[in-house]
Amino acid sequence: MYQTSFTANLPASPVCAAFSGIQWDPLDRLRLTGAEKSLLRSGEDNPVDYTLGNTQDAFLYVRALLKVLAEASGPSGPSVKVSKLREIQPVEDALQNLYLDITGVVTHYVISKLYEVITCLRERKNDSDVSMVAAFYHQDKLIDDWRPLLRVLHLGGEGDPFAQRGAALCLAYILLVACPSQGNTLTTEYSSAKEPLAALISWITSRLQSSLGESVSLVTPTLTALANCPEARQIFTKNGGIGYIVRHLRSNSTKSRALASAEFLAKSRRNDTGASVQQLYELCFCLWAMTYDCKSSATIRAAFTRDGAVKSFCDLISSAPREKVVRVALSALRNLAECTSDDDTDEQCTDLELGKVIDGSVFLTEMIGSGLVKSVDLMLERQWGDPDIIDDLNVLCKLLRKNYKDMTRWDIYEAEVNSGSLNWGILHTENFFQENHRKLEGGDGKFRTLKRLIVLTTCDDDCVAAIACYDIGEFVRCYPNGRLIAKQLGAKDTVMRLINHDNVELQRHALQCVSKIMVQNWAAVH
Length: 526
Fold this sequence. Notes:
Blueprint: H1 34-45, H2 48-51, H3 55-72, H4 91-100, H5 102-122, H6 132-136, E1 137-138, E2 141-142, H7 147-153, H8 161-176, H9 189-208, H10 213-226, H11 230-238, H12 241-258, H13 262-270, H14 277-291, H15 298-306, H16 309-319, H17 323-338, E3 350-351, E4 356-357, H18 360-369, H19 372-380, H20 387-405, H21 409-419, H22 430-436, H23 448-456, H24 462-478, H25 482-488, H26 491-496, H27 504-518, H28 522-525
Antiparallel strand pairs: 1-2, 3-4
């Protein structure tokens, strides 16, 4: 059984060596009272457990820290120097930054201290005298002092990676204790935390829209912290979060297939263009956690189907970036394969193209189309030390073979096209299209499969694009008036761009496809 929660850690601040040099008395710009300065000094001189010794002290200390953050991270944007630092600074350089950019150092100090406080409080139960609830909630409602944490997330310019990563993680842990799924027994807290939670998740999804690895690293600690919370997962799904994660997984699986090129390796080292293996694992972990909501939510099942999550998992397994990534991807696929629509708490949701309720059989069809049968067969031949991997492989193998037996050749072809995983074989031959060309019309006559093939001619995978060109050409050759239909759908213009492609095989199939579209009697010419 895999872990159902993820410990997200905050690395040290680049200027942590300067924290001991902070003097609170001269910092009049922070507008601290004498009592607040005394609390802050006590927090530096004593272990955090001592500072949080009673409810009143803990509550006041947390509010003092948040007040400092509010004053230090004002509306002027990120700090001048500290926000630009990425590596841990030597003591001398850190102290120099304390002199040159005091507000930047103070901001990092407060974030670090808040994280330390939260880590200590999270180890205590909510019914203890001093807990997360006691420190951050008053009269069963979230204290208003949390807002500077959200402000830090929306710093202008290039932002402040350490402060933003830390503020997001602290805010996530503060809000999680209000969620009913986390064992909270108080009734009025979640209503006060729901809007801040939605704002936090909105920021996460906005960062995931970027393809830069640093943007991903800002949010993965927070995302993994929230992954065990159903309330957060529902909000994340509504914000399109599944699609953003899938895009990063797809991007990295594509790069994994291209990594044989030394030139590509050199380029990837020079440019920050994607998630690291650890970030990849964390993103997979978050998607895996969301597969547990599939049995109760048709909306989430629809998102997994719409956003191509199955294809991304299958690609990761075939490219095998690391065993831990493969392990969590296999478990996610098993959850999808076994999900049903029996326990839905929201409205039934059907796939408009498939015209049926989305459940495990739909996901299994996607897996077959993505080539998972071959990957599972190959993996079963290997020796695995993890019994969970063996169990998942055996279950998936059994389910895939059962589903495969119930599928016609056309079903398999359609699944392959929808997944975008085209491979040369009996499904891409003259005989196949002579028997099945009319099925490209679709049940509604909208030629969805043909349209999908046209899209696949623009695929980055040259082999997939070449097969798509061949299939379009065979449709044109076999289907009555296929030439006109292909032209109307834009096939000619799209494929024409590939005639001068660097890949000779793709160039050849593109030329043949265009010729079939343009020549009245291809059979006579051929």
